[in-house]
Amino acid sequence: MNPRHHPASDWLLALGAGTLDEAQATVVAAHAEWCPACRVKVDCAEAIGGAMLASLPPTAMSVGAFDRFLQCMAATDNLREQGSAPSLNGFAHSGLPLSLAKFVPQGIDVLPWKHLAPGVRGVRLPIHSRRGIQLCLFEADPGAVFGSHTHGGSEMSLVLRGAYHVNGLRFGPGDSEDSEPGSRHMAVADPEEGCLCVAFIEGVNRPDGFLARLLQPFTGL
Amino acid sequence: MQAGLAYPNSFIVIGVMPMHARWWGRLMQDAGQRGGVSELRSPTDSIGAHHVALIRRVADSSDRSAFADLYTYYAPRLKTYLRRLGSSEAAAEELVQEVMLQVWRKAALFDPTRAAVTTWIFTIARNKRIDALRRERRPEIEAGDPPPAVYDAPLAERALELAYDSERLQDALKTLPESQATVISMSFLEDKTHSMIADELDIPLGTVKSRLRLAFRRLRHVFGDFA
User: Fold this and answer.
1) CA distance A34 to chain B (A)
2) Structural domains of chain B, with CATH
3) pLDDT tens, B79-113?
4) Which residue of chain A has the CA closest to B135?
5) Which of A9, A69, A80, A176 to probe by mutation at the B interface, max B CB count within 10 Å?
6) What pLDDT, in 10s, does the model give residues A152-201?
7) Residue B96 in contact with residue B75, Cβ under 8 Å?
């Protein structure tokens, strides 16, 4: 089933433009792997980038740039690729979206999970952010409550497995929830399945987002 | 076309595109239906189709004159793109060379049913730049291939739209209202997050986001019902 909750289109535009931080790009791209409608939007954003590139005025390359290029090309010509493009669709063996799987090459079971709240565990993935944005996984047992807080920075979570419920809405696999600063929040893991989610968390100066607070023990925010 | 000055003369040869591939026939048919494209090397409105033909020649026969044409067109534009995003003169040139090397190496992987050549090259440049920024911060991590694009093989019809409409998209960009054009340009060409745009223009973040969404919706209309 295709996801029903999508990132706002400005996130997809920013993914295509290449301006998202690594943690943000990972979550938004992981959603797009699940969601054909959002993939189309990312394609369009990239096409806009292509059109902008073609519209730019040229800046002269330095004298001899092409000759240097040819030398480099000759030196590495054995690296040319043949054949058709590999399929970019599908998930890694771990069942995670490819954009996320590269950060957990050994699977999620071996990660140093930490207890965060009754029935809730989390782990921060090792990425370094230009803008202090963290990428975290969290897992909740059936019926576990994540809490109710005011958001500080922006956060986005993506359900990988199971589901959670918030304000009467169900977020299942592939669904993303975009939380603007200042929104109120109360999430409950699905009573039968629990949930596994990935999220990015923008720390800013007020670490009171619900995920930020939940994950505070190891984000150090 | 300043970079052309650096070419050995022997590279400036106009080749003839073999009409062997099925997609190529479809692209040309599509071009014909849009009117005004009757041969491969016709002027501006067929730049996209011409570049597809050049990539094909690079892929099929390692055609260096075809590649030289692509380099002449894209290298100076890529340099502008990277300079605007904050790369130094030297770093921008280095990245341009890396991008064009990727174009040479991966020409066989270019799929004209997925994207226009300019879009494909844009994504390579975008990823190379992101990769370079990450390498600066994490020298211990080897530079790998950029993360894969997230799309799978799209419907051929939609793809033809995507591949073929770069020129129409360029026209549409020019017709955006000033306020929308500004935020789009700052997103793509200045590496500004939405909050940074809001700060710089002194408008609320929500306004930046709504302008971007409006502009994006308007530009997606170029692709008709497909997007």
Assistant:
1) 9
2) 2-156 (1.10.1740.10), 165-227 (1.10.10.10)
3) 999 999 999 999 999 999 999 999 999 999 998 88
4) A128
5) A69
6) 567 899 999 999 998 889 999 999 998 766 565 678 999 999 999 999 98
7) yes
Q: Please state, in angstroms and rounded to a whole number, the distance separating the CA atoms of residues A31 and A12.
A: 10
Nearest 10 degrees: Cα torsion B11, B12, B15, B17: 90
Q: How many CB pairs under 8 A join A and B?
A: 232
Q: Are A91 and A98 in contact (CB under 8 A)?
A: yes
* CA-based nearest residue in chain B for residue A26: B147
Q: Which residues of B touch A135 (CB under 8 A)?
A: none
Chain B residue nearest residue A29, CA to CA: B150
**CB-based contact A153:A192 (threshold 8 Å):** no
pLDDT digits (tens, 9 = 90+) for A23-55: 999 999 999 999 988 988 998 999 999 999 999
**How many residues are listed for chain B in this entry?**
227
Contact B150 A46 (CB under 8 A): no
User: What is the ipTM, given to two decimal places?
Assistant: 0.84
Give how far A119 is from chain B: nearest CA, Å. 33
Query: Which domains, from first to last, does chain A contain?
Result: 105-219 (2.60.120.10)
Which of B68, B146, B178 is CA-nearest to residue A25?
Answer: B146
Provide, as residue numbers in chain A, all residues whose Cβ is less than 8 Å from the Cβ of B83: 59
Q: Which pLDDT score, from 0 to 100, does residue A99 have?
A: 87
Distance, in Å, from the CA atom of A81 to the CA atom of B123, rounded to the nearest integer, reads: 18
